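Re-running the complex after MR caught last week's input typo. The corrected sequence lines follow. Everything else is unchanged.
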Amino acid sequence: MTERTDIRLWQRLLRNPRVVIGGLVCLVMLVLAVGAPWIAPTDPQAQDLIASFESPALLGSAADADPDAPRYWLGTDNLGRDVASRMVYGTRIALLVAVIAATLTALVGSLLGALAGFYGGKVDTLISRLVDVWMSFPPVLLAIVLVSVIGTGLWSVIAAIVIVDWTRFCRVVRAETQAQKALDYVTSARMLGMSPLRILISEIFPNVAPLLITLITLEMGVAIVVEAILSFVGLSLASGTSTWGGMIGEGRLYVNQAPWLMVLPMLAMMAAVLGLNALGDGLRRELDPVVQR
Amino acid sequence: MGCGASSIRWCNDERRSPQGEGTQVSDTTTDRGAVPAAGPVLQIDDLHVEIRQAGRVTPILRGVNLSVSAGRIHALVGESGGGKSMVAKAATGLLPESAVTTRGRIVLAGQDVTRWDEPRWRTLRGRTVSMVLQDPLTALNPVRRIGAQMADVLRLHQGHLRAAVDAENLRLLEQVQVRDPAQVLRQYPHQLSGGMRQRVVIAMAWACRPQLIICDEPTTALDVTVQKQVLRLIHRLAGEGQGVLMVTHDLGVVAKLCHSLSVIHGGRILESGSVPDVFARPQHAYTRALLAATPRFDRPGHTLVPVDDALIEQLEDEARAYDRQQGVAA
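Corrected-run output:
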């Protein structure tokens, strides 16, 4: 029976186009991120000043050039750096930020949300008011202020995302925990003598988990966008590192001569966010224990 | 309370079975009273509980007296909102936080538990007292396997090891007559039928042989045929010497299964006694009205009589008068 139900879940997931498309996007990102040194045609920092603003070879315009010269499939930027390589390495940063930030955000937010929803009373009042106050700050502004205070860098970006976005998890998990807590199976567990902590962990958590998985996928998309915003305003990683947001920011300056510098990383970001949202949406439908039945 | 009466008379199918399930029922009831009545496992004396919320005080229990003896099934009968569930909650320490016990006491298995806090209650729940809830669909965690949920109870209270837990789970499920228990242990609640689920719930409640089991309308959510099987099961398990408090509004269940009953309305016990006595000679007008409102298939031509509105009003007036009197006294 164990295997059979598991297979059913997998089969259902594979039949859902959203899950498949989103999963493929994630898989491609993962392959690019892990295999960056082998996949990227050149070193992302290597400058070829003679070949600056080379248009993408894929468009065929560079075909007339000297056959020995390196081919830049997605063109080069103002310093002659290979856009394809930079985007591949940018995927690495994007995925890293997405995974770590989303996980930490989920951890902080759902912990506080679960406590508020389960214990109620004063704990709930305290946490809920905190969330209300927190959400009254404009999120992007808050992130920018934060990063400019704590300094730039990968971990600052992640910290900014966690600090800005934990409220999203907190609210959803609180509401769901409250709803689950009112159900009979929780009364039943109390009636059998289980401690509140145990009920929260072993009874309620498995019921909230599907929702949490969905939220985490959605949050990964948000994290990618926030990282790009911070890179765009120059508050993410040092400009030497390739990030999608940084590339968009730099490409903006040359948008008239070399539009691909801005368009390509934007497309990559859109594909990633759309893919993650599709995955989250698909998972939400398939994992929801109520819809399942 | 008439539950101590040694002569439980009635084993007469024609008289006892208002639900008309015929002669098959007889095996469930013939040995009723075989277990000698011992001292009460649950004794509630003059219990007053009120809800205090947003500055308003609403009395919900007004001096409840109740006693459940070991090896006996005591019914608590009344209409919705009459305080049945509140008594069940009080007896398990599950009253909402806004509820305040103002007077009276609850003695459970010899211990005065009236003002116990949550951690102390936890030492009793599952071990000394447990509860079978109304709807077996929601009483089990939808995303955990039956085996894991059952194992929790055993591990929590009896410190069983893994292998022992599996064996005990199988034994418990066999005892509640679940077919193919090994399979059921590996299934999720939604894969079982309502009757099977309720059997699992009952097995969990019975797992640690608690002295008192409270059944909160255990058959309301089930089909009539399944109801009969579950009731028979409860009867058989109760024969092992545990006290059962059966909260119900189904007088047919009471007639078939229970030894004694209390009629509750507006948080007051209107009448208590052994089932044959109360059914034969109801003392209170409300009890008579309830009996008249029960379908009797054994009496052709019997028409249902709804409970008289005037009677309900009168009861409510009495309850208010009681509150005023208490308010003056307090």
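None of the earlier attempt is carried over here. Chain B touches chain A at residues 92, 94, 97, 118, 122-127, 130-131, 133-135, 138-144, 152-153, 156-157, 183, 186-188, 190, 201, 204-205 (CB under 8 Å). Residues 1-37 of chain B have pLDDT under 50 and may be disordered.
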